[in-house]
Amino acid sequence: MSEAETKPLFLGVDGGGSKTLAVIVDEAGCERGRGVAGSSNHEVVGMERAVDAIHEAVRKATAIACADLPLTTAWIGLAGIDHPRDIELLAPAVSSFAATVRMTNDAELALSALPHQVGVAVISGTGSIALGRDAQGALARAGGWGHVLGDEGSGFGIGREALQCAVRAADGRGRPTALLDTILRHWRLSAPDALLEQVYPTFDKTAIAALAPLVLALARAGDPVSCRIEARAAYELALAVIAVARRLGFVAGSLPVAFGGGVLIHEERLQALITRRIARTWSVDPVVVKEPASSAAHALIDWSPGS
């Protein structure tokens, strides 16, 4: 038996709509292995494919770590885990990963970067959500309603609003904006009419969310319409944080906040706009969580069930 197998090892899994990342660390916090697979959102790809992706990512990580299952502790955070019945369905498929397995929504992984996992995490990726935890372990959330009912401030939300502004500009119903030409070039379309065929037949949320970096780049360059979209996204994400903090009873003072998600972690201007609005009520110095799977694995070193 190898040295890696005899020591405690901790597994974090971040399963989202686009990919699944598994990270293994040892008791000193050193990374021993990682593995990447496809989407493990069972609401998007189905239960079988989701489970296959989780196992593939974990299998790759354990191979690099030269470790056998079960490990010491695992934290599995998955998109689409919104109800106890979701955990009941998926728990048997991951129970072999560790002696103790913790399963939550993927958004909760970002809380692992905060001291004692207390505070509020706000996520902006393809979708958006804010999730908080108080010192007594109570959880509250705002957002996470999906692309029809919500997703304000998300990559999809920003991309959708950019498309709406672009076609309004094309019609003459809205202000001229660089968004129109930028989106047409990005999708290699020759005319605004081609947007109908691009958007509707397949309705690819990921492709629309991928427009967000273009929009935020135009905001940095001073395009007025893009600046307004950026400001609305920041307002909505800050509003979600504030709503969660108030529901959990965080009083004026210092509020631990974590930023996560592929859109938010790469956009410092967006982070600053959100922070500025939250700072009207609380003192805040947000932590940016670039890899929730790694953060979760490290948090498990000092975690115990019931904490």
The total number of structural domains is 2
Q: How are strands sequenced across the largest beta sheet?
A: 3-2-1-4-5
Helical content stands at 40-55%
Quaternary status of these chains?
single chain
How large is the radius of gyration? 20 Å
The CATH class name of the largest domain reads Alpha Beta
Cα shape = globular
Rounded to the nearest angstrom, the distance between the terminal CA atoms is 32 Å
CATH-level-4 superfamily name of the largest domain: ATPase, nucleotide binding domain
Average predicted confidence as pLDDT: 90
Model regions low in confidence, pLDDT < 50 over at least 5 residues: 1-5
Q: The biggest beta sheet, please?
A: 5 strands, mixed
Strand content: 15-25%
Category by helix and strand content: alpha/beta
Secondary-structure element order, as H and E? HEEEHHEHEEEEHHHHHHHEHEH
CATH topology of the largest domain: Nucleotidyltransferase, domain 5
Task: Give the name of the CATH architecture of the largest domain.
Answer: 2-Layer Sandwich
Number of helices: 13
- The total count of strands amounts to 10
List keywords for this structure.
single chain; 307 residues; alpha/beta; Nucleotidyltransferase, domain 5; 2 domains; five-stranded mixed sheet; 10 strands; globular; disordered N terminus
